[in-house]
Amino acid sequence: MIDINNLQKASAILKFSGDIRDFINWRASFLEAVHYKVNESAARKITALNSTLPSEIFVKISRGTTYSADGYVARIRNLEKDFGDGSKLYNVVWRNLTKAPHIGSIKQTNNVESFVRLFDEFVNHAKILNIGHDDKLVYSIITSKFDEDIVLKFQSCARLMGIEVNASNFRNWLDAELQDVLSFRAGQMHLSLRGENRYDQSGSKFSTQAPGQTID
């Protein structure tokens, strides 16, 4: 628990990045570390709030407010209005997922990793916000981001494994395929490095001896 009587420790409170996707975690941290401290003055809570927010956000939520209990409450309400709207947050993570780059091959590992991360972010926020979603409908939308060969391979594997064709199972299959590619690349790199080491240890060098020259 952070003691805000020592404002030098305020830097240890979780900082808010200004990204709405980070607001839930920041909010929980600030509530516990600062907001629920009933013996602290509103002015000191405002100071702690200022230390954890980007300056432009603090200025925005502070317009027309004072360093008082009412002013603190007004700032918190303004902050919740801008970042605490669950439907707005849900729309942001959904939009980010649907704007993921097209993937033509599992070997595009950076894009695949990004897609898996965005999907997990969407699902996790949906759970936190208690917003349900149709996994089959989501699947029909997100698979438009992939070449048909990838989608057909997943569907074939789903039939063989007896699992449902939906977004969550597609994500899990995709991540497993990604790990296979990454493991293969790591193995190839290891073999390549071993080959270079064997060459170095053999002491092989290009000969500096001229053609026909003998060594006395």
What do you see in this structure?
The protein has 216 residues and is mainly α. The protein folds into two domains: 11-84, no CATH class; 87-195, no CATH class. It contains nine helices and no strands. It has helices at residues 23-35, 42-52, 55-62, 69-83, 86-98, 109-128, 135-142, 148-161, 167-202. The longest helix has 36 residues, at 167-202. The radius of gyration is 28 Å and the shape is elongated. The chain starts with 22 loop residues before the first helix and ends in a 14-residue tail after the last helix.
| Strand content bin | under 5%
Radius of gyration: 28 Å
Summed up, the helix count is 9
Number of domains: 2
Number of strands: 0
Which outline best applies?
elongated
Query: For the terminal residues, how far apart are their CA atoms?
Result: 81 Å
- Helicity, in percent? 55-70%
Please tell me the overall pLDDT.
Answer: 85
- Low-confidence stretches are 1-8, 204-208
Biggest sheet details? none
Structural class: mainly alpha
Can you describe this structure in just a few lines?
The chain has 9 helices and no strands.
Keywords:
disordered N terminus, 216 residues, elongated, mainly alpha
Secondary structure layout:
Layout: H1 23-35, H2 42-52, H3 55-62, H4 69-83, H5 86-98, H6 109-128, H7 135-142, H8 148-161, H9 167-202
Helix pairs in contact: 2-4, 3-4, 5-6, 6-9
